[in-house]
């Protein structure tokens, strides 16, 4: 398939190559401190005209590059809140192709600072060619929180009560830290994100359609969490303290030291959180005798976690062209949960059974991750990158179940140890031959080994084992991948085409009590191709179009494959399915972007077609609701995502996101019951308002709404919530105090309706509730402008197409 469309596509691009536009670049710095200024607005106007030709913002090093300027005279308008706007006249001639303006100094606007006393903010969101980047340190509402809290305030991202993350209403999302998996899996992502302090995060990148250069995992795309790491010369650090009204607290510190050839950093943070929860449900069913059964469950509980997160790394720039890095992450923590639920069963409106169930659980987990990276730069945009990563996670838990009747009590104690090891090696070669041809080729290998188990006793002394509930589960997986991409641009046209081949083999085995029957170890191997294609065109008047296509995979792992019976709730029993097949998705996306001097609009129309869709399915048996996972059918999803950024009145910055979803799930049969296909339309919206106040203060309000959404066996009802944050800076911005309020309307809950053969169930889950928090942050250091060129945060995922 690739040869049929790739050859004519390349021919079309190469034929379109004409005279290349000329570029202007520079570095914007503070006139006094000489430190680079980030996210400065740089706009280009034709001489004598007020119509903007092009615009861009400076990067983390204060650098900017504006490409494809035709011959003529221009004015460069450089502006930033709190600084005097600077106009720089430039001329583009045939003889002067690349114009380097060097260091451009901006002076503070003393009049504005004196009269208004407003502190400028970095842009909270910026657009790049193949991703959207959100600045977390500008998200006041997340101050003092966790990575989960930070993600919950990112447009298009949602986090449920169990810590599960979805992107554009799709749970098939891959989460990385610093461009790598870092030991995060579907089974442990909630724990890791709750333990990772939001204060350690620099930004979050949303890559909804990753190219063939990156892993094909995740039907919804990739969320890359970029941790803070300064690259400026000198030393820089900070400490922070936090606490909230629900008994949570934490502390963290970081330091960066960069001198000569050495770049080093270290972070450490301790965090404890606690939240209340409640679960209420009503289930109506009919037994074999035709009796009407009503089960009412009323439960309350709490859960919490405490743990230590540490991170350190060092980079040695051996020569001008060679750099070697070592890094390590260590995470250790403990989680606890308590739940008490009352169950009342009515048969034909008469109370026939009543009991109380108490569940107490505790778990310990520790994670160790080590990385090694080597970069050799042959020339500008020509390099070789080698990397290796090892992740180890050790987790174990104990749960006690007490089922109290009027005259007796049943006791169960369950231990569940588990270990996971993962290796990743990668080699990537990149070479830009010219503006219209860049080549990327590489190899990536991922090797996973995990095992978990469960032993159950019916007495506190562990003398009497319930052998029917014994379980051990192992999962070994190897993925070897090779890839290649070509990309480039010609004038206003940019392209990228890639192909990735992955060979996967895995073995899974679960020994002990099964739901249906015992089976031998399941072994599978398969080879798949994952093409990707991107085309972008820059229209006049700051309009931009991009069309892209990728193929993705969602591999089932962990609890989805383990047939072990989960007895946390004896009336709602769940187990996995070792025979699940991978879910494949073809994704097509059309993006449009329009930029003005103070406004940006992004519109994305996307369509996804998935086969062997993995869904949770439920059925009734002996008045017990069983839930498992199945490849039920095929699905189609489409949507429109609108993102707007508006700077109003010099003190108000609005970021508004609206997502409109349409989904179609084909009908299927499960347990001899035919389920009709579903067609669903839903939408959600999020608005973040940042207000610059006098006296070095800033206010942030975040509102969220999600409409009703249909599922394979029912629907999830609409929900909404509101967060706020207020921050004040002292001591020339070195000290800041933030007050936050989460779910200030106490409205965050999940209400759902499910149905199946002979049953319907309505459930309401609430968690967290209103929480008021306070955090203090103090920054120190003597950071100076780095003289190194062409360096960026290596934790960020490189854009695959050429910059505009």
List the helices and strands and how they pair.
Blueprint: H1 2-15, E1 22-30, E2 41-46, E3 52-57, E4 63-69, E5 72-79, E6 86-92, E7 98-106, H2 110-116, E8 125-128, E9 131-135, H3 147-152, E10 157-159, E11 165-167, E12 173-177, H4 189-195, E13 201-207, E14 221-227, E15 234-244, E16 249-259, E17 262-286, E18 292-316, E19 322-347, E20 350-379, E21 382-404, E22 409-434, E23 437-457, E24 471-490, E25 493-512, E26 522-539, E27 543-554, E28 566-569, E29 572-574, E30 583-595, E31 599-621, E32 624-648, E33 652-665, E34 668-670, E35 673-675, E36 678-693, E37 697-706, E38 709-711, E39 714-716, E40 719-730, E41 735-742, E42 749-756, E43 759-768, E44 771-781
Parallel strand pairs: 1-7, 12-14, 29-32
Antiparallel strand pairs: 1-4, 2-3, 2-5, 5-6, 8-9, 9-13, 10-11, 13-14, 15-16, 15-44, 16-17, 17-18, 17-43, 18-19, 19-20, 20-21, 21-22, 22-23, 23-24, 24-25, 25-26, 26-27, 27-30, 28-29, 30-31, 31-32, 32-33, 33-36, 34-35, 36-37, 37-40, 38-39, 39-42, 40-41, 41-44, 42-43
């Amino acid at each position: 398939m690739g040869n049929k469309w790739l050859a004519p596509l390349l021919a079309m691009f190469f034929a379109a190559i004409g005279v290349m536009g000329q570029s202007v670049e520079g570095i914007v710095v503070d006139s006094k401190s000489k430190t680079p200024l980030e996210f400065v607005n740089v706009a280009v106007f034709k001489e004598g005209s007020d119509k903007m030709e092009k615009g861009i913002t400076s990067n983390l090093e204060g650098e900017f590059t504006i490409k494809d300027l035709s011959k003529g005279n221009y004015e460069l308008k450089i502006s930033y809140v709190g600084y005097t706007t600077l106009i720089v006249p430039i001329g583009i001639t045939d003889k002067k192709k690349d114009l380097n303006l060097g260091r451009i100094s901006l002076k503070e606007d003393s009049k504005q600072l004196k009269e208004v006393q407003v502190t400028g903010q970095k842009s909270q969101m910026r657009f790049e060619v193949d991703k959207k980047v959100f600045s977390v340190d500008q998200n006041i509402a997340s101050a003092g929180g966790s990575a989960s809290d930070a993600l919950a305030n990112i447009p298009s991202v949602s986090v449920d009560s169990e810590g599960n993350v979805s992107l554009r209403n799709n749970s098939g999302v891959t989460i990385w830290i610093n461009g790598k998996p870092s030991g995060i899996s579907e089974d442990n992502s909630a724990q890791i994100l709750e333990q990772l302090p939001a204060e350690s995060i620099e930004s979050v990148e949303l890559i909804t359609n990753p190219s063939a250069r990156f892993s094909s995992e995740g039907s919804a795309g990739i969320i890359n969490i970029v941790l803070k790491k300064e690259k400026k010369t000198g030393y820089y650090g900070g400490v922070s303290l936090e606490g909230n009204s629900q008994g949570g607290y934490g502390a963290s510190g970081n330091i960066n030291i960069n001198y000569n050839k050495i770049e080093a950093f270290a972070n450490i943070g301790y965090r404890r959180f606690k939240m209340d929860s409640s679960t209420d449900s009503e289930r109506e069913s009919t037994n074999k005798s035709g009796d009407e059964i009503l089960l009412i469950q009323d439960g309350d509980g709490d859960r919490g976690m405490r743990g230590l997160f540490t991170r350190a790394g060092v980079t040695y720039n051996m020569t001008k062209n060679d750099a070697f890095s070592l890094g390590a992450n260590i995470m250790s923590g403990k989680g606890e949960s308590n739940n008490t639920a009352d169950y009342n069963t009515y048969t034909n409106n008469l109370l026939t059974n009543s009991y109380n169930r108490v569940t107490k659980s505790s778990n310990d987990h520790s994670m160790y991750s080590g990385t090694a990276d080597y970069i050799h730069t042959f020339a500008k945009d020509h390099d070789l990158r080698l990397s290796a990563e090892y992740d180890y996670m050790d987790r174990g838990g104990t749960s006690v179940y007490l089922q109290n009747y009027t005259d007796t009590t049943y006791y169960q104690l369950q231990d569940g140890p588990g270990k996971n090891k993962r290796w990743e090696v990668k080699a990537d070669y990149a070479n830009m031959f010219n503006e219209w041809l860049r080549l990327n080729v590489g190899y990536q290998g991922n090797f996973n080994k995990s095992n978990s188990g469960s032993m159950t006793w019916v007495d506190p002394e562990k003398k009497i084992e319930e052998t029917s509930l014994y379980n051990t589960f192992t999962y070994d997986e190897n993925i070897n991948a090779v890839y290649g991409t070509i990309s480039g641009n010609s004038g206003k046209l940019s392209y990228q085409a890639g192909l990735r081949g992955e060979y996967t083999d895995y073995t899974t085995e679960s020994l002990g009590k099964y739901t249906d029957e015992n089976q031998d170890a399941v072994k599978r191997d398969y080879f798949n191709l994952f093409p990707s294609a991107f085309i972008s065109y820059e229209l006049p008047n700051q309009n931009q179009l991009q069309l892209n296509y990728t193929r993705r995979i969602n591999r089932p792992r962990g609890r989805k494959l383990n047939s072990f019976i989960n007895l946390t709730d004896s009336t709602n029993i769940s187990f996995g399915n070792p025979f699940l097949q991978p879910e494949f998705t073809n994704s097509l996306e059309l993006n449009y972007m329009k930029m003005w001097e103070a406004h940006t609009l992004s519109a994305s129309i996307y369509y996804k077609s998935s086969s062997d869709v993995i869904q949770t399915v439920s059925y009734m048996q002996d008045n017990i609701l069983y839930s498992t996972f199945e490849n039920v059918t095929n699905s189609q999803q489409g949507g429109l995502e609108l993102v707007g950024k508006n700077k109003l009145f010099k003190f108000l910055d609005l970021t508004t996101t609206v997502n409109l979803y349409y989904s179609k799930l084909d009908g299927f049969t499960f347990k001899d019951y035919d389920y009709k296909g579903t067609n669903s339309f839903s939408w959600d919206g999020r608005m973040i308002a940042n207000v610059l106040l006098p006296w070095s203060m800033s206010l942030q309000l975040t509102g969220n709404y999600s409409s009703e959404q249909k599922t394979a066996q029912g629907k999830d009802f609409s929900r909404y919530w509101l967060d706020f944050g207020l921050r004040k800076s002292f001591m020339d911005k070195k000290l800041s105090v933030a007050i936050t309020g989460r779910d200030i309307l106490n409205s965050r809950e999940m209400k759902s309706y499910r149905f199946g053969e002979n049953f319907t169930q309505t459930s309401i889950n609430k968690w967290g509730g209103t929480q008021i928090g306070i955090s203090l942050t103090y920054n120190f250091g003597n950071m100076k402008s780095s003289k190194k060129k062409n360096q960026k945060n290596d934790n960020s995922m490189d854009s695959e197409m050429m910059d505009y």
